[in-house]
Amino acid sequence: MARWQCHSAGVRGHCATASDFRFQHRCRQPVDVAKAKQHTEYMGFAMTDFADRRRMMVDTQIRPSDVTKFPIIDAMLAVAREGFVPDADREAAYADQNLDLGNGRCLLEPRTLAKMLDVLDIQPDELVLDVACGLGYSSAVIARLAQMVIAVEEDAEMAGEAQTLLLESGADNAVVHEGALAEGAAEHGPYDVVLVQGGVEKLPDELLTQLKDGGRVASLFMRGALGEVRIGYKSGDQISWRFAFNAGAPVLPGFAAEAEFQL
User: With contact defined as beta carbons under 8 Å apart, do 75 and 144 qualify?
Assistant: First the structure.
């Protein structure tokens, strides 16, 4: 594990189911914190019962979405999601919508992350690249499944806070690499698995070249307000994509398709 210590300048320290169908109509705007608080009170929880809300998240969002692998369930029960969001939004941490992180970025809703992980089936001996980690929640969850996680974040403030939060959460096998999202972190690869924590219109070739032969990549491809998660399997220089499920998220910086020129 020692070889993964921070040593480079860039490192800091179609709808398939009814549950998928609703995502074709889901608003991609930030979650309404006030409404999330009201919903929490309606469910009978005190505003500080985060452990109860984690269990409710798993029971009402994760399991009903056909995510049943024990390591994923265990990881999402163990990682305190409220610790990886802005302080003002802690009460909305377990809402079943994407959570705004500012600057056009979001924390993917629990269902989307869980279903990505379920399809990818990350193994304990695998190296994972987590692109656009934000404040580190996804990386903290993945760290409980993989041997090592390299988390890429281009926002300097987020990157620094993410590394601190990951260490505080006990995820000492997760390292935050500060750099452009679209460039990944080639110096630590190649990777068994690549995840992108946000919407894309086009996936940069530079990320795909960092994937091992036989590796898997999960990405949320957006077309307007609608999106679908696809899983890519690498064989030689080719990626074979398969539809996984519907979801939605803002398109990440550096992942928009180039505008076509028309006369």
Answer: yes
Nearest-angstrom CA–CA distance, 200 and 191: 20
Of 152 and 21, the one with more pLDDT: 152
Q: Which amino acid is at 136?
A: G
pTM to 2 decimal places: 0.82
pLDDT tens, position by position, 168-196:
999 999 999 999 999 999 999 999 999 99
Three-state SS across the chain? CHHHCCCCCCEECCCCCHHHHHHHCCCCCCCCHHHHHHHHHHCCCCCCCHHHHHHHHHHHHHHHHCCCCHHHHHHHHHCCHHHHCCHHHHHHCCCCCCEEEECCEEECCHHHHHHHHHHHCCCCCCEEEEECCCCCHHHHHHHCCCCEEEEEECCHHHHHHHHHHHHHCCCCCEEEEECCHHHCCHHHCCEEEEEEEEEECCCCHHHHCCEEEEEEEEEEEEECCEEEEEEEEEECCEEEEEEEEEECCCECCCCCCCCCCCC
Domains of the chain with bracketed CATH = 30-247 (3.40.50.150)
